[in-house]
Write a structure and sequence with these properties.
By secondary structure, this protein is an all-alpha fold. Helix content is about 80%, strand content about 0%. It contains 17 helices and no strands. The two termini are about 35 Å apart.
Length: about 375
């Protein structure tokens, strides 16, 4: 019943928020970002820990069914709003001056993982048990390469925010590279899915739709949205009608990019970038950020942990493969991006930091 689902969901929220608070404080004490604590909180509450210690309690708190669907939906709303805020505070002017570096680092963050994925996929495919029947070597190579190339953009954005790098040259460059790598990786995954289902239109819709969406929003959309800046300044704030229009557009963009197969966060981020900067950006951020980062966004990271079952990696061979893939992903992507940055004359310290940032979101996501 809907009423019973809502009542249970309130209990889930209370448990999740309390656990995030406690684990997040512990994570900060040992020098880790809050977001890492939130993902660990999900693992603590999920089948990997609470499910092993008290399976009855875990099933009672987080049963499969309607409540789980509601939690997933709220988590996605929080993620979309957060990625919109990241785009809203993204300084395009900083990237214009470092476009060459952004392109080089993004290319390295894609090409190196694809090459590494191709090398690792062949022996895994031949050994059996890691891919389904019917998966071709090309499909395995592309899939594993894309999985390694994905930066875990939401994780990267949250780390940059928590470390105070938002709005800095380094943080903006890392976000630009992460967004590009993730968009390309989702396109590669769309190609793999199209090959698996023998339906090339899936890849055409995903790639073509993503490019078209970006061009329309960043040209026609950006010019149309420009009127919101002066309107907000005249009113002295972002009024409820303005906020309503923004949220309607945001949900529509998230829906569109999800439907075409690129993922909702891409649509949210691009729309945020297209929004007016200055007064409008600051006031809209102040209205949305506290609720999103404190209440809604933790749901996403906890949901990821709740659906992680570490117990499935239950043999020495599986652990060796898992750790090997983690090391290949982190080292390969991090080193490639660092080298690319150095080639573009980026100072060593900043180049290493950029390589670490592009691999950090990936590392946390893989480990969780």
């Amino acid at each position: 019943m809907p009423a019973a689902t809502a009542i249970h969901f309130f209990l889930e929220l209370a448990v999740i928020l309390a656990t995030c608070r406690v684990v997040g404080l512990i994570a900060k004490r040992i020098g880790q970002p809050q977001v890492v604590g939130e993902m660990i909180a999900g693992v603590v509450l999920g089948p990997s820990l609470l499910g092993e210690i008290a399976p009855g309690v875990q099933q009672a708190l987080f049963p499969p069914g309607p409540a789980n669907v509601v939690l997933y939906t709220v988590a996605q709303i929080g993620l979309v709003l957060y990625m919109f805020l990241i785009g809203l505070n993204f300084d395009v002017d900083l990237i214009k001056h470092r476009a060459g570096t952004a392109v080089a680092v993004s290319a390295a963050g894609i090409l190196a993982p694809l090459a590494l994925g191709a090398l690792v996929a062949v022996p895994l495919l031949s050994s059996g048990g890691y891919f389904e029947d019917g998966v071709t070597p090309v499909m395995a190579m592309l899939f594993l390469g894309a999985a390694i190339a994905i930066t875990a953009f939401p994780m990267l954005a949250r780390i940059i925010f928590e470390k105070g790098l938002s709005g800095t040259s380094l943080g903006t460059l890392a976000l630009a590279c992460g967004a590009t790598d993730d968009a390309v990786s989702w396109c590669v995954l769309a190609v793999v899915l199209a090959m698996n289902r023998d339906d090339p239109t899936m890849a055409v819709v995903a790639i073509g739709g993503g490019v078209l969406y970006t061009l329309v929003v960043m040209t026609i959309g950006r010019r149309a949205l420009r009127v919101l800046g002066p309107m907000a300044e005249r009113q002295g704030t972002v009024t409820p009608p303005m906020l309503s229009v923004v949220l309607i557009l945001l949900m529509a963009c998230a829906w569109f990019t999800d439907v075409i197969g690129i993922y909702a966060i891409f649509g949210a981020f691009i729309l945020g970038v297209a929004m007016p900067s200055g007064f409008f950006e600051r006031h809209l951020t102040s209205r949305l950020e506290p609720l999103v980062t404190t209440f809604l966004l933790p749901m996403f990271f906890v949901y990821s942990g709740l659906n992680t079952q570490i117990g499935l990696v239950n043999t020495p061979t599986l652990w060796a493969v898992t750790l090997g893939l983690v090391l290949v992903a982190i080292a390969g992507k991090g080193i490639a991006c660092t080298v690319a940055a150095r080639i573009k004359k980026v100072p060593m310290r900043e180049a290493v930091a950029l390589g670490a940032l592009t691999a950090s979101g990936l590392a946390a996501a893989l480990l969780a």
